[in-house]
Every structure is written in C-alpha cells, then in structure tokens.
C-alpha cells in the first residue's frame, strides 16, 4: 500500500514509466490503483524513432505488472516522509 | 333468413351438393357468344398471318405423341365421362331447354344466368362461395385476372386460358383447341342449323368435359385451400418471425457483447426488452410521421429550387446558362441526386439503430422550416420588389449555403450518433451486482483500520502540502468511524457537503466491510493453526492484495533461544531497542572487570559500531513516529482521564527517546561519544530537529553542551579538510552532503537554544569548546565550527546591544562580571585564532595548494562568505588593539578583493559584487568601507 500511497500524491505530475519491454513512456500521471495500474496522459515515448507506432498515442493505460521502473519527479517526493512511511509499514508488519 | 336483402342461400346445403357432385346444375359456365347476333366479330379480326413456320416450331409434321399430356388425366377421365353421361341423362332435357345462349334466353329458375351487370357481380354461385368459406378471396375471378400468379393448378396455365373459351377446361389438348379454333374460324355469322347442331353437340360434349373438369377442379380447390391454409400459416409464421426480428434487431445490428445472450434470457431482461420494443415501435411510428413531414418539406424545397432555377434561366437567357450554373447552387442532376440521397437516407433511417440514436428530428424539421420560410420570404420579396439579378444570386447562394450547412450538420450528427451507437453496444454489459462487487473489492482495498498506517505517506504528504499552501486543516480527508476504522479518500474532492446521503451510505457500507474484515481476521486467528497446516512457503491467496505475503510469518521477537536470535542475519528490533544483545557475555565480562578494577568513575567502552548506530537510530525513529502519532491523537485537556493517560504515555515515550539518544552517557565513555556516533549518519542528523519538539529546553541545553564538548569528534569536523580539495571525489561529495545536513539539521535545531542563552552560558560554552578542542583554529577552519562560533559571537553581540539600549534590564554588577568573563575567554580565543586568520578562508587554503582551476573563482567567493561573516562578528567583539591585529592580518586579503573588483579582474558583475559585499561585511564591522580604500 505504501507505493500506492506515494503514487497517489503524484497525480498530475510528470513521470516516466519504464516497461519490461524496454519502452519508456513519459507522461502526466492521471491515476493509479492498488495494482499499480497506471493511467498516463499526454504521453511521449522516449525513443520515438524506434517506436513510430506510439507517436499517435496520446494517452495510455499501463497494466501494473508490465512496469519495470517509474521515474518520479524528485521535487515532489518527500524522502524523509517516505522513510517514515517505510518504517511505519515495517512496524505494522512486525505487529501482525 | 334474408340478410340485408340478399337472397337467402343455404350455403351448407349448397356445399353439400357440390361435394356430392351435383354441382353441375347451377354451374357457373362461362358464356360463349360465337355465332350469335351479339357476337362482335373480334375473332375475325385476329391476325392469322405468320403461321408459316408453325409446324416447324411446334412439330406438327409427324404424329403427335401423348407425352405432352402433362396432367395425364384426359384418358383417365374418359370412363368417368361416360358414367357422367348416363348419370346426367335426366338433366339432359333441361339442358336442351336451356340452350347455350344464356345471354338471350333466361329461364325463370336459372339463377346462374346473369341478367344485368349487378347480377353478374352479385354472384351467388357455389364457386363464388367456395373460396370464401375458406377465408380466401374470390378465387375464380382472381385466377382469371392474374393467371400467371397461380402456380397450383395446371389448368389456368394452359394456353387455352388465353382463348375466349378459356374456362372451359384446360384438360383439352392442343389439337382439340386448334380444331375448335379452326371450326370457329370456319363458322360464318349466319351459321346453318347443322352447324349449330354440331356446335351444340360439341358444346354438350364440352359441357361434360367441363363437368369433369369442374369436379377435378373442386378436388383441386380443396387441395388448394389446404395449401392456402398452409400458406397462410406460413405467412403468419413469417410475420411472427418478422416481428421477432424487429424485436431482436437492436441486438442484431450491434455486435452482441459476449455476455449479452445469457443475460437476455433472464425474464427480467425480457420484460425490459418488451418495454423497449414497445417504446421503439412508438418512436418509430412518430419518427416515420416526422420523416414523412420532413420528406414532404424537402420535396417542396427541391421543387422550389427547381422552379427558382427555371425562373432564373428564363431571366438570364440561355446564353448565360452554362457558365452561370456552375458556381451557384446544385444543378438539376445534383438536386435529383440530393433527392435520391434523401430517399436513401430515409430508407436507412428506418433501421432502429439509427432511429434509436437519432437526435430528435424536430430540430432538423424546424431548421428546414425556417430555411423554407426564409426562402419563401426571399421569393416574395423578389416578386414584389423585382430585386436585381445579383441580389437574387446572392440570396440563392445564401440559401444553398445554408442548406448545405444544414446537411453537413446533419451528417456530423449522424456520424456522432453512429459512434454513440457503436460504443453503446457495451451498455448494460455489467449488472448492478457486478458493479457492486467490483466496488466492494476496490473499497475493501482502500479501507484499513488505521489510515495513518497504511496510507501514511499520502495522508501526511497531503497535510504538509496543505499546510504549506496555507489551507485549513479542517478539511480532513480521513474518514473515521465509530469503530475506529477509516477510509482514505486520497485526493478526491470534498463531497461530503454536496452529497451527504451518498457519503452516509458509503460510510455505512465501508463500516460493514471493515467490521467484516475484522471478524474474518479474528476467525483466521482462531483457526490459524488449521490454516497454517501446509502453509510453509505459500503466499496468501488473495490475489487482489497489493503485495503477496507469506502465509507463514514467524515472529522473531518471540524467539526465546538466544543462539537463534544471534544466528538471524538481519537486524532485529529486539537487538536495537534493548541493551545490545551482541556479545552480551563479553560485555558482561568487561563490565565486571572494569567495576572490579575500579580504574575510574567512568566505564570505558568501545565506540558504537555502525550497525549499532543504525539500529539505535531506527529504534529512535520508531519512537519518534510513535510520539508524533500520539501527538496527533492528543485528547482535549477537558477529558482529564484520557488526557492524563495520554500524557503519561507521551512522557514515557519521550523518556525512552532521551535514553535512546545516550546524551547522559558520561563524556569519557568512548571516543566518539555514543551521541556523536548517532549523529554521524545523515539520518541521525536529520533526527535531531524532530526530537527538539518533544525534548525540553533544559535537556536540549545538556544536549548542546555535549555537542560542543564533543565537537571535534564530529565526523563533519574531522573530515572537513577534504572539502578543500577541488577534485570531485565520492568522499568529498559525502562530506559535503553530511556538512549540509549538519548545518541544516543539527545547527538549525540548536539555533533557538543559542538564541536564548545567557552571556555566562555562552562564555562557558566557548570556554568548553576551546578547552575540549586541541586546536580551536582547526575547528574554526571547518564550516560547522565556523558557523557555531559565529552563532556564539553574534549571540553575545545581541546581548550586549540589549543591555546597552536597556531593552533587557540587568544588574550592573552581574552584567559587568559576565562581560569580564566573556572578554577573558574571548581574548584567549582571539590569541589562539590570530595566527590562522588568513587560513580561515577556504580560498586561501585552496590557493596554497599548487593546482587550482580558475573556474572555481566565484565558488571560492561564495564559500568565503561565512568566513567574512565570522570575521565581522569577531571584529564587533574585538577591542581596538585587536582591530589592529585583524586589519594587519587581513590587509592583503581585503586589498586583493577590492583590487580585483575595481580593476575588473572579474568574470562578471556578480563576482565583483560578491567580492565587494564580502569585504564590506568585514569592514563595516570595523567602521570602514571598501570605498575608503585608496589604491
């Protein structure tokens, strides 16, 4: 739930999603669900010359399971808070 | 019974008679009028030519076989005919009395002979009755009228039918017919008796033949009636099918979505469909009416256009016609095409799918009406005022443009409707319960008993963001229920005010979900032993959980075996929170030895290992989180019971924190001191500002004293020389980062404490710093040290100013003593520092090194700035003699900066200003300015 929680705060921010098929899509994060399915708007593929078929695509829905990495805008992530959240989660996990 | 004055006719009886073969009496025999006075002689007018090739065509040369006798019934009829002859012998006289010229001779009882036109129509013969009783139309007549349509009887199809004596029987052969025709041709108007006799004989023969034919025909008719009945049934079935098709059309036209069919079989759905069907039919009906109206209007409009065109043609004359026609509106052909298109559209618009999503056509009707009205007005105006040609043109063009526009609009609308229709085929794919199910899953994912635990990041981040933006915190986005469950709504808009009912319902639902989940958890706990059987290495089966968890989770805290605990490769919580378990035996031995030896009042220990530091820090962080969480849930002071309980818990946690910081561990315990060790990682440094909120100021003072006492043990002080290197190395970057963290976190957190220090405390702290550090100059050469010294000096300056302007009334005696003390310590400090004044500047230290890139010039000025600030603070505290020392020592540095600034030995304006500002910072403290320096 932590990552979901983080992504929730990143809506309407520019992110880059790297897929497992080596496609990198940059776009505005519109929504995320608990499976970390991602909806992007106004997208742009990193290597457009290699993926010309993506040039016409303006928005997309990415299944969470095909995502390798998501590059977050560092100015919109509170690292210390993230650390705290991690601590809380591990604490909760120990409690359980 | 006479009905409406009709002659009574016992139909049943008649039918009986007919079935018994007695129909010949009243037979409706066709009337032939050859050889009679009334014969109009049309037969003579027949063209008889062109028969030369008849034989060749019809094979008349050889003997004629019987293979053309399709019915094969003529021979079969022969015995029957003979029988009938004998049977009808008693009827014969009457027949004789009633000659074959019914048009002239009417016997009173002979009903079948028509007297007038009405009586012909008023046909009550059994044959006229027969078909009717089967629900059919008048059969014989229809047959006569449209012979080609009846495919059941071989008779009407025979070519005889086209002859005047057609109904006499199709059973005759071609030969007979030809003979008949030949005889007919031979007969003159005034035929002899012989001929007439022959004719009569022939006719008699024909009569019998016809009787046979009639019987046959009756049988056939019965057969045919059956067939008709079948046909009718088939027709009905067809109609039903059509209706069904009509019903199913909406589904057929759109591709049925995968789950459509099973759902449609449910009775509820059928009901809906029937309703829908009814609606559709009604709509269709209305639509058709509207379309007809529209069509009519359209036609009128087209007509009008045509007329207008014709008029204009007339007006303009034929010479202009061709060239004129091109630019202005459509040609006649175009109009026709338009018309066709319109028709086509109309046809197309019959499809329910289109009709369903057709935007109410009133709009277009209205539009067209408006256009027509405009057109009419234009025409009217033209007629009246005799407008010029050009104006007419313009008006017409305008009208055409409008029409085209309307067409375009309609086209667009149609496309849109089609799109909607295409998309809407998935409508109602999911039932409400399906949707509810999914919503439940989603909501149950969002619902947690503790939203701050599971959605901590988003909640706190949102709170921080809101506080940063100055929003009120009353906009709570965490819903809390009486049971303590909560749902995080994330970033959804505040909807509580708008839809309170919906929110309430949702709350209830969520509450139920939460309580259910809790009960399930409890049940799981009860049956955990059963559920754990065979669970080794398995993950939990709930696929919609975000992260798979192992079913079997062994809590290492409960482990009682110490060997097992130590064998655990990971950092365990127990190790961190309690006294260090690691090497417990060794520790105990050491402790006993030291206490036994009693070498001093301090137990010397090894400094904390990095791992110990990290685990301790994590434990501290957990404590801090707990404290912060507790603070959020602070009960109002009115509830004394709860508040006291809370206060106790809070104090307990703060106490644990204080213990964990190890500030009270004796100074000489280890080098570095455990507290300094805790500050070495950046997260340790960052922890401090979060603690200050909870730790009292007296404790903070203790903490700061410890920090000052152990200042040289700090990593940032020890490794500061690395910063003077200009090469970018990983170590340098790390030191830089740590230094920034220290300045930003640790110094920031002690800043408020320093700002409230008394003069004597500052004096004591400075003395402590000088005493504890072997070389105060070395401390001053580090950024943290310089910052700390600047803090002290500026605090003293603030105190002095407060005393001088009487803002802070003080006892003159104590103040004087404190000042004296301070001056003593300061003098000591100044003396120690003087030889190193120039090397305080990072730029100077860097210049001393052989290699330095010039590109770092501006950066050097910036990193020099704190030094200039420090020197300014120093100058403020210094006495005039010390000023002399300062100026002498720093003269070169000042001159160098001013010179380079004034002579333009700088890269840009920024650098010049920075240099001058730096110098002025120091000079102003001495009461000087850079402009006074004459070069």
UniProtKB/TrEMBL annotation, chain A:
> What would be one Gene Ontology cellular-component term for the protein?
P-body
Q: Where is the Sm domain?
A: 2-76
One MF term from GO for this chain?
RNA binding
Q: Which UniProt keywords apply?
A: mRNA processing, mRNA splicing, Nucleus, Ribonucleoprotein, RNA-binding, Spliceosome
Please indicate if the UniProt record lists Ribonucleoprotein as a keyword.
yes
Query: Ribonucleoprotein: is it a keyword of this entry?
Result: yes
InterPro entries named in the record: LSM_dom_sf, Sm, Sm_dom_euk/arc, U6_snRNA_Lsm2
Supply the Pfam families for this chain: LSM
What is the annotated localization of this protein?
Answer: Nucleus
- Please provide the Gene Ontology terms (biological process) for this protein: mRNA splicing, via spliceosome
Q: Could you tell me which PANTHER family the record lists for this protein?
A: SNRNP CORE PROTEIN FAMILY MEMBER (PTHR13829), U6 SNRNA-ASSOCIATED SM-LIKE PROTEIN LSM2 (PTHR13829:SF2)
Q: Which family does it belong to?
A: Belongs to the snRNP Sm proteins family.
Q: What is the annotated role of this protein in its UniProt record?
A: Component of LSm protein complexes, which are involved in RNA processing and may function in a chaperone-like manner.
Q: What is this protein called?
A: LSM complex subunit LSm2
What is the species of this protein?
Mycena venus
Automatic annotation (TrEMBL), chain B:
Q: Where is the composition biased (Basic and acidic residues)?
A: 92-113, 584-593
Family to which this protein belongs: Belongs to the PAT1 family.
Q: Which InterPro entries match?
A: Pat1-like (IPR039900), PAT1_dom (IPR019167)
Q: Which domain of life is it from?
A: Eukaryota
Keyword Protease carried by entry: no
Species of origin: Mycena maculata
By its UniProt entry, which Pfam families does this protein fall under? PAT1
According to its UniProt record, where is this protein located? Cytoplasm, P-body; Nucleus
What is one cellular component GO term in this UniProt entry?
nucleus
In Swiss-Prot or TrEMBL terms, this protein is called Topoisomerase II-associated protein PAT1
Q: Its Gene Ontology molecular function terms?
A: RNA binding
Q: Where does the UniProt entry say this protein principally localizes?
A: cytoplasm
Per UniProt, the keywords (alphabetical) are: Cytoplasm, Nucleus, RNA-binding
Q: Does the keyword section mention Nucleus? A: yes
The chain positions of domain mRNA decay factor PAT1 read: 1-929
Instruction: List every stretch annotated Disordered.
Output: 42-170, 242-261, 519-542, 557-603
Q: Which GO terms describe its biological process?
A: deadenylation-dependent decapping of nuclear-transcribed mRNA; P-body assembly
